[in-house]
């Protein structure tokens, strides 16, 4: 055997351990798993399989409401704390108070069915998302990354622009004037929602929204009343009331779409058909590899609140319908968990 033949024999039989194959050719590594029989993913899940979700409510003792949600190795804790925002009518300034013109006060007394305009305009719900130190190997200390900022904005948009889970009425602190018989708005509750990802293995949006919704459902605010003598809001130390989430529950489900045409058929001049897979609940490795992604937000009544698609041209009507169907299944699963809070 010549040296050339020996080299060719060595190269033709060259193989890589799975971790090396995953590192140098992640797309092919994922594809080989999907093409196996039965089709599986590197995590050993089926393409249509979500990671199990768990919920622990009221985990934080100093918050008005909190929840920890874990989906696989992604874990998010959300805490809700309410603070009183006073409304001033006269002159002078007071810390934590807002001075409004008379016509603005009249608008506040109107119907609460304002599609979240008051909540957004006055900043009555303030969500904040951050990645905890060491939550992922991609985490770097310093200013929030583009990923963290974009995820926080998507979550904020869902809560305030799309879902309107929290009606203005549940945040009002009113006073009935015995002299005139009229009810005036004296203050509002402002809800500060801090969401921290303590472990990240992909799909942070689904876990963050589920934790936020569960924390809001678990929230109990002190009974607040207007003291006419002190001219200020007084909160009870013992009595509380549950936060009204009349907007209902809502959850997101995220997917990845993978497509592949047989290269041998194409080389032989055949019309290769596209094989497609819809992957539910991407982990961190899959998020880095899959370029075509879909997010479906389902709310009460299993209605579609929002649908997003980014990247790629593989997904067709059939794949989008499957995403919606799987999202409704995930909604029912998460609804059972949160409804028990």
Automatic annotation (TrEMBL):
Biological processes per GO annotation: exonucleolytic trimming to generate mature 3'-end of 5.8S rRNA from tricistronic rRNA transcript (SSU-rRNA, 5.8S rRNA, LSU-rRNA); nuclear mRNA surveillance; nuclear polyadenylation-dependent rRNA catabolic process; rRNA catabolic process; TRAMP-dependent tRNA surveillance pathway; U1 snRNA 3'-end processing; U4 snRNA 3'-end processing; U5 snRNA 3'-end processing
Localization, UniProt: Cytoplasm; Nucleus, Nucleolus
Record's GO cellular component terms: cytoplasmic exosome (RNase complex); nuclear exosome (RNase complex); nucleolus; ribosome
Main localization of the protein described in the UniProt heading: cytoplasm
Signal peptide from the UniProt entry: none
GO molecular function, one term: mRNA 3'-UTR AU-rich region binding
Location of the Exoribonuclease phosphorolytic domain: 49-222
Organism superkingdom: Eukaryota
Keyword match RNA-binding: yes
Keyword Protein biosynthesis: no
InterPro entries in the cross-refs: ExoRNase_PH_dom1 (IPR001247), ExoRNase_PH_dom2_sf (IPR036345), Exosome_comp_Rrp42_subfam (IPR050590), PNPase/RNase_PH_dom_sf (IPR027408), Ribosomal_Su5_D2-typ_SF (IPR020568)
Record keywords, A-Z: Cytoplasm, Exosome, Nucleus, Ribonucleoprotein, Ribosomal protein, RNA-binding, rRNA processing
PANTHER family: EXOSOME COMPLEX COMPONENT RRP43 (PTHR11097:SF9), EXOSOME COMPLEX EXONUCLEASE RIBOSOMAL RNA PROCESSING PROTEIN (PTHR11097)
Protein family membership: Belongs to the RNase PH family.
Name of the molecule in the record: Ribosomal RNA-processing protein 43
Organism: Ascodesmis nigricans
């Amino acid at each position: 055997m010549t040296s050339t033949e020996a080299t060719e024999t060595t190269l033709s039989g060259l193989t890589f351990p799975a971790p090396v194959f995953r590192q140098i050719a992640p797309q092919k590594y994922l594809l080989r798993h999907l093409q196996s029989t039965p089709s599986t993913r590197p995590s050993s899940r089926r393409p249509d399989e979500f990671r199990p979700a768990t919920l622990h409510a009221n985990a934080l003792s100093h918050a008005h409401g909190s929840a920890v949600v874990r989906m696989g190795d992604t874990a998010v804790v959300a805490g809700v704390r309410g603070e009183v925002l006073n409304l001033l009518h006269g002159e002078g300034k007071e810390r934590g108070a807002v001075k409004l013109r008379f016509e603005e006060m009249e608008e506040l007394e109107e119907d609460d069915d304002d599609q979240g305009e008051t909540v957004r305009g006055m900043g009555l719900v303030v969500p904040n998302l951050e990645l905890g130190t060491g939550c992922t190997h991609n985490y770097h200390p310093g200013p929030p990354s583009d990923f963290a900022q974009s995820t926080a904005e998507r979550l904020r948009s869902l809560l305030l622009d799309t879902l309107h889970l929290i009606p203005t009425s549940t945040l009002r602190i009113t006073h009935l004037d015995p002299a005139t018989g009229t009810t005036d708005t004296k203050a509002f509750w402002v809800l500060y929602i801090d969401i921290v990802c303590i472990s990240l293995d992909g799909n942070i949006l689904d876990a963050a929204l589920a934790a936020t919704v569960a924390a809001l459902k678990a929230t109990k605010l002190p009974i607040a009343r207007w003291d006419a003598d002190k001219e200020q809001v007084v909160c009870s130390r013992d009595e509380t009331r549950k936060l009204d989430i009349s907007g209902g529950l809502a959850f997101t489900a995220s997917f990845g779409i993978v497509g592949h045409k047989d290269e041998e058929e194409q080389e032989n001049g055949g019309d290769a058909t596209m094989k497609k897979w819809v992957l539910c609940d991407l982990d961190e490795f899959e998020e880095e590899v899959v370029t075509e992604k879909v997010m479906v937000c389902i709310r009460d009544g299993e209605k579609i609140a929002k649908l997003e698609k980014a990247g790629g041209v593989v997904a067709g009507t059939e794949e989008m319908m499957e995403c919606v169907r799987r999202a409704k299944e995930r909604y029912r699963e998460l609804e059972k968990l949160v409804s028990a809070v």
